[in-house]
Amino acid sequence: MALIQCDFYSEVLGLSTSMNVILPQETQTQIGMEGKASSGKHPTLYLLHGLSDDHSIWLRRTSIERYAAAYGIAIVMPNAHRSFYTDMKEGGQYFTFMTEELPRLAESFFPLSTLREDRFVAGLSMGGYGAFKLGMSLPHRYAAAASLSGATDLKHMYNVRAQGDPVWKAEVYRMFGTLEEMQGGPNDLFHLATELAKLKSADIPKLYQCCGTEDFLYEGNIEFRDHVRKLGLELTYEEERGTHEWGYWDMKIQNVLEWLPIRQQQRV
After folding, report:
1. Is residue 267 part of a domain?
2. How far apart are CA 58 and CA 66, in angstroms?
3. For residue 164, is it within any domain?
4. Exposure string (b/e) for 42-54, b if CB count within 10 Å is 16 or more?
5. Phi, psi (5° rounding) for residue 185?
6. Is 237 inside any structural domain?
7. Which of 50, 55, 57, 263 is most exposed, with minimal Cβ within 10 Å?
8. Rounded to an integer, what distance in angstroms lies between the CA atom of residue 67 and that of residue 127?
């Protein structure tokens, strides 16, 4: 695998930012692993970080490079700061950045496939929310979306955490506005799932969700899982004992890579 730190300027955000990129490399003589790569442009997983982290965290806390090597898939890990991957009410236009500018730039810098069937998104916590938001908002762009311990139910942030923490309450408002503004709109995963269910099954991305049963986001994940299932959407759901920590995510990202519908002709 080739590992690249790419520093670039974002016109959408109006600032310099970064992404880490892992590119497949076919190898036979590396000790402890064998790399695979396609002969053409690579299928790509956009892998999103959580609220307190940045673009470097998946490399620092997991073995994502080693895991990805077996699948011949590129991994793009962008920096989205504390944005919840949304066009903020008072702040940067991070959803526009993530869905329009970032893939356009990444696909111009690196040999990444531009086909919907080769483009996937996953993330943890805030990034799990972001992965579902991107995948469900733009099903024509992503073949699969995976949420690991995702912040799937934003009502909890308003009704529980924000009520006892004025600093967090102000940050949530800068991201989403009021609860009334958030609900039923483009930042509400429950609403996005309802709209997604109206599409033909062939146009709906595959969905994967997992959460540890001791995670503080577990209840919200169960509510979202049940909502999706009531809509009749196909969802791969996994749970076991676990909290909001990297040992769990290092384990589950391996499941995500195995679950992704990576086209067989790409594995050479």
Report:
1. no
2. 12
3. yes
4. bbbbbbbbbbebb
5. -120, -165
6. yes
7. 263
8. 19
Structural domains counted in the chain: 1
Domain span at 218: 2-259
Question: For the CA atoms of the chain, what is the radius of gyration?
Answer: 18
Q: Could you tell me which of 97, 12, 64 has the C-alpha nearest to residue 254?
A: 64
Please say whether the beta carbons of 5 and 18 come within 8 A. Answer: yes
CA-to-CA dists, residue 64 to 70, 114, 216, 235, 254, angstroms: 11, 22, 25, 23, 8
Percentage of residues in the chain having pLDDT higher than 90: 86
The two three-digit tokens of residue 78, written as one number: 């962008």
DSSP 8-state code for residue 40: S
In a domain, 265, yes or no: no
DSSP-H helix ranges across the chain: 57-61, 64-69, 94-96, 102-109, 126-137, 155-156, 166-176, 179-182, 189-196, 218-230, 246-259
CATH code of the domain covering residue 60: 3.40.50.1820
pTM for the whole structure: 0.96
